[in-house]
Amino acid sequence: MATTSISLLALLMALVSSSAPTNAIPSRNQDLLLATEEMQNANYFTFVMLINMAPANLIQGNVTFLMPNDWALAKTLMPENAVSDFLLLHSIPSPLLFDQLGHFPTSSLIPTGKPELMLKVSNNGWGNFYLNNVRIVRPNVCTAGSSIRCHGIDGVVEATMTPENHDTSTLPLPTCSSSSSPAPLLPSPLPGPPLGGVNLNPLEALPPSNLDDGGSSTQKSGSCKRLLLGGFSTLDLTMMGCLVLLAIGLSV
What Pfam family is a match for this entry (predicted)? Predict the structure, then answer.
């Protein structure tokens, strides 16, 4: 009797284990199935075909798709080995409804599924929201699942590199500003002889050799420089002497 009970229990456990699904679909893959159904209902058949062509582990969830319509994709030449890169370029690694995208101001950069490629926002309100060169024309196509969102766009996205990957070797050099380091000083010229033998110290008397022709200057420059002697010119002293002699003559 005990043997029969054990046999029945083992049979029951085998039936229960066989009735359980052996390959349960993960919730994220279920979200992808729901999203592709919504895409097909919105007539984005070619984009669904690209998703089906991609490796099964490429997209698991937590993503926002940007979907060109069938007409735009029909005009795009795409090798079969470029499907994954195309899908990554047309995806944002976070599920974002259009209202959430609307919080990004103009000139914001949103990453794509490829880390080196970005989407630049031009936010001019509903119906005029651009990511790089494309405009969102059909928002919130995918909403049934919890981890995948998708929006229809009016063309194929053109890539924008991240600022860190820009090649600055061809950029113009920055112009010098007042705050920049000073330019190297040029060597100072050798000092030349004083012009016209002028003594720059007015308190020092000039030797008689520097005077000729009754105290006229020997300078040959165009400027009129006076030879100073104790603060008076030699011409002033001569005139003062003449005035003294004239005064003596008149007094006599």
Answer: Fasciclin
